[in-house]
Specification:
mainly alpha
């Protein structure tokens, strides 16, 4: 992901949309708050974020649809997307950019596992997810 971003293959906007898609499916409140803030700073409109969660492929921007569909497939299959989704990603973006998108998806999946494990419902404390997302520290 870092190489693809550095080489200009992946925009921060696409990376954030991919991460928001995965984190919405996984239900990680901490990551959702954080990535919504990053998206806002990147100038991504709220309606564009909501568009990520529609079920109709035709409603997604066509240049982003393969990445969003791959992110959905990866998250809903617990990291085991279909071979068709992977091949479609490579066909749409090329192998290097597809690997960058895969890196973004894997990064947020790992982040979600930590974020979900640390959510109040999981640990029985009153953690403010907004404070965790902004400061990176937990306050009870």
């Amino acid at each position: 992901m870092s190489r693809s971003k550095r080489d200009g293959e992946l925009s921060t906007e696409l990376i954030e949309k991919v991460m928001l898609t995965v984190t919405e499916i996984n239900g990680c409140e901490v990551c959702s708050v954080f990535h919504n803030r990053v998206a806002e700073k990147e100038g991504i409109k709220e309606e564009d974020i909501q568009m990520l969660f529609v079920t109709e492929v035709e409603e997604l921007p066509q240049d982003e649809a393969p990445a969003i569909l791959f992110a959905r497939g990866y998250a809903t299959s617990s990291g085991k997307p279909s071979e068709h989704l992977w091949k479609s990603l490579i066909q749409s973006y090329g192998e290097s950019k597809a690997k960058g998108i895969l890196g973004a998806v894997r990064t947020i999946m790992m982040g979600n596992s930590f974020g979900i494990a640390g959510e109040p419902s999981q640990i029985g404390s009153k953690v403010d997810p907004l404070k965790v997302a902004v400061s990176g520290t937990r306050s009870v």
